[in-house]
Amino acid sequence: MRVLLTNDDGIYAPGLAAMEKQLRGIGDLTVAAPSTEQSGVGHAITFLTPLTAKEVFDGDRLRGWAVDGSPADSVKLGIGEFCPERPTLVVSGINGGLNAGINVLYSGTVAAAIEGAFFGITSIAVSLEWNDHFNFARAAEIAIDVIKDLLATEPAAGSLFNVNIPTAALSGLPEVRVVPMSIARYGEAFERRVDPRGRSYYWATNDPPPAPSPHESDVTALAAGAVTVTPLHFDLTRRDMLASLASCPWQLRAGV
Prior knowledge:
It is a single chain. The protein is α/β, with parallel strands linked by helices. It has a single domain (2-183, 213-246), classed as 3-Layer(aba) Sandwich (Stationary-phase Survival Protein Sure Homolog, Chain: A). The chain is built from six helices and eleven strands. Helix 1 crosses helix 4. The longest helix has 17 residues, at 136-152.
């Protein structure tokens, strides 16, 4: 099995190294990741300027490619240029910080997995709750077990999964819950400050939702200490509205 590994924290991130170590045990691995941190860039791609990439070595071993672009760029280049053959699995992570709830929409980590799914490749994003002393080694052990279990279900090509690991799950035997992503709004507030030159600037506070949701989601399951698995899809079409809109009596004016 050919595996493509990427992330949004950059090719030198410790979470990537921990995931790389575990993935080498399940297949032939290619690493292509951004040369610098790209957190929060979502599904941005580079097309107004050329992309560059350089080889990164671990001693004499070619470790992978550092791409001067986004996580999605890294996946596109990894599949099209760097993998000797088309990968059967794309893994993005381990991200330093959870990608749950509406953060999924902003996450470069998840976007990289979505890009893999665009290519019809089973893709999995993996994130670990923020901590000043990340235990990425243990998180990677949990992640590889989850990945193996997901692959054992023989998901359809192009399947997309988002895996989050809370700090509480790093000790003992963690529980895994399959849950939907939360769509509760949060992180809308900004703190206004003034710089030394008297100019205003604004710092996002990323405040959590004011009250817990009564419905189980990735956010509530993570708060309970469970590892979460959320199947995602990137088709944004509101199919329930197609028929009603198709019958709309459109009244456009003719051009002259």
